[in-house]
Amino acid sequence: MNKITEGHTVKRFDEEMLFLHRLVLQIGSLAQDQLRRAIQTLNDKDPTAARGVISRDQALNDLDVQADEAFINLIIKRQPMAKDLREIITISKAVSDLERVGDEARKIAQLTIQIYDTDNSPPNKQVLRDINTMAAFVGDMLEISLTAFDELDAPKALDVIRLDSELEEEYRSALRRLTTFVIEDARTIGHMVDVVLGLRALERIGGHAKNIAGYVLFLITGSDVRHKSLERIEGQII
Amino acid sequence: MQTLIKQQSTIGAADRRTVGRVTVENPRIRCRNVHVYYGEKRAINGVTLDIGRNEVIAMIGPSGCGKSTFLRCLNRMNDAIDGCRVTGDILLDGQDIYDKRLDVVPLRAQVGIVFQKPNPFPKSIYENVAYGPRIHGLTSTRSELDEVVELSLQKAGLWDEVKDRLNQPGTGLSGGQQQRLCIARTIAVGPEVILMDEPCSALDPIATARVEALIDELREHYSIVIVTHSMQQAARLSQRTAYFHLGDLIEVGMTNQIFTNPRHRLTEDYITGRFG
After folding, report:
1. CATH code given to domain A3-237
2. What is the pTM (predicted TM-score) of this model?
3. How many CB pairs under 8 A join A and B?
4. Can you tell me the distance from the alpha carbon of B154 to that of B136, in angstroms, rounded to the nearest whole number?
5. How far is CA B259 from CA A10, A57, B239, B267, B271, in A?
């Protein structure tokens, strides 16, 4: 239990905050799992499992709705202030981002179906290699951002924001490599659009992890770091 | 209270130093190093704070923190309490209000006060409002007095509800109407500052909303200092908020900042319901 969810004179308030805090971690864990499974379906060339990932997205949507109800009720009952208010705002925004991570994972599962269910000539391993690299990268970003949220750890949240810059570079490099493949072998062009959409989905997941890290910094410091350069954020936080 | 005493014992002098900007440009009231004693007991401990023009400033804090005591210093209401002693400087438009030569009667017209419980005089609605201007000699003819009464009741948002029954007793009005009548009574003598000591705590939510809307409108003409136990009310009404704790002014800041990101741990603990 972190300090934000404890210490209220009304103990029920502590419990309600803790419930919401844990709900974010639960939604985060499910979103991470969806991402891992979606990538696995691509590696396993398994459209059936990919359909499982897509149908499992509903569980994430249900938790999103449950979280909405819980924090609306908490606002009605407790009218949170100061760090409680910031925690509720952070939870509300983080849940939205995590739900969208689930949507992006679903897009990757759809990529598996697109490539392996309808086509006899799937792309070669090289073309898909960047997807795996980027998936591991954004998986780490997501993990660190959720840990930063749970432990109220500003340095970890800053790490995620730093990693997002690397991710952008990685994404651009992957696009350049794909362009090279197409130039070298025009027959691969059929899957290029699908693979680019997959990379784009992963790049978006990294963006959501960065957003969550930004909310964590807002939660800890009260400063809104959105739309600010890394240098400005570091200047504000450190 | 035990919790408060325990907290106090762990708070050092540095922790009790006011956090935030206590001054404003061109203040209406300037308070410097104000101490208040009830006999030997110190109730207010060296408070320095400006009250701006056309602002609502909220005073919040747990019971016994000194917020009402401080409010009452601003128009010398504490003079009426035996054994109460005030030191430091309180200047209204540059004039020391504790100057021995100063007459407190005009001071209390300049700095009016509205209490927790509506307290209309046992007189007609008209007389409740007319009383102040009459004793202060602010009007010379009946028509002038009528005009002041109507204007004050209009400013208090009560005119339309009472214009046809001005001769009926003020005590016959609803609680919310009585409180607005008391505000009209305060306005009638042309104050510069209005002090409000939990003005809505005896009112239902609708009456509270009407009084709050009125306070918001009055800000255009007056400086308003409001003591409230409702943090939502402080957040809704005020531009600045001051947090008091056991006689110390702990933090002052823009209301948005105080309620989203207070800088002092005691302020944070209080407004998030972690003690008190």
Report:
1. 1.20.58.220
2. 0.84
3. 39
4. 21
5. 19, 37, 11, 9, 7
